[in-house]
Design a protein that fits this description.
Blueprint (H helix, E strand, L loop, with lengths): L1 E7 L2 E7 L6 E6 L5 E8 L2 E8 L5 E2 L9 E7 L5 E8 L2 E8 L4 E5 L6 E7 L5 E8 L2 E8 L15
Antiparallel strand pairs: 1-2, 3-4, 4-5, 5-6, 7-8, 8-9, 9-10, 11-12, 12-13
Length: 158
């Protein structure tokens, strides 16, 4: 992993480069700014990548090696919860991955709704989802009552 810094128009940034990884898209930061998640092409498949910003190291996502992450990853405050839209054959579904427990949980949607984008709340207890239903885009908020809250701000998840 190559980490480079640069400044443009009074703003500085970091660029993460990894040999063998193709196009990257859909970036999202954890609430504390410590982690960056993207969707990247690997060996012809799209995969979620989780990067620790301070080192540029990619963090393993144990328990998340199946399926085909499709789009719109989102992280809770410390990155305990990673939500994204997973493409399974012709169907898109929402899943929330609990990194602390290495557990993937699908979020069933009412019939006929197709997720387009999402964002998870900092505490990991709510999910805002843009849905396509009968040709119309709507936004719905879902409570995730079975999730315990993400760690308090300042407590890193390792």
């Amino acid at each position: 992993m190559l980490l480079t810094s640069f400044c443009l128009l009074n703003a500085c940034g970091q660029r993460f480069e990894a040999p063998g990884i193709g196009d990257q898209q859909d970036p999202a930061l954890s609430g504390n700014g410590r982690l960056l998640v993207t969707v990247a092409e690997r060996s012809g498949r799209r995969a979620v990548r989780l990067i620790e910003r301070s080192t540029g190291n990619e963090l393993p996502l144990k328990g998340l090696n199946w399926g085909m992450p499709h789009r719109s990853p989102s992280l809770s405050w410390n990155g305990r919860y990673l939500a994204f839209i997973l493409q399974r054959a012709e169907r898109s579904e929402i899943v929330v991955f609990d990194r602390a427990l290495a557990r993937l949980r699908p979020l069933p949607l009412p019939g006929g709704r197709s997720p387009q984008a999402l964002t998870i709340s900092p505490d990991g207890k709510r999910l805002g989802v843009q849905l396509l239903h009968r040709g119309q885009q709507d936004v719905e908020l879902f409570n995730l009552p079975s999730h315990e809250p993400d760690l308090a701000p300042g407590a890193p998840l390792r």
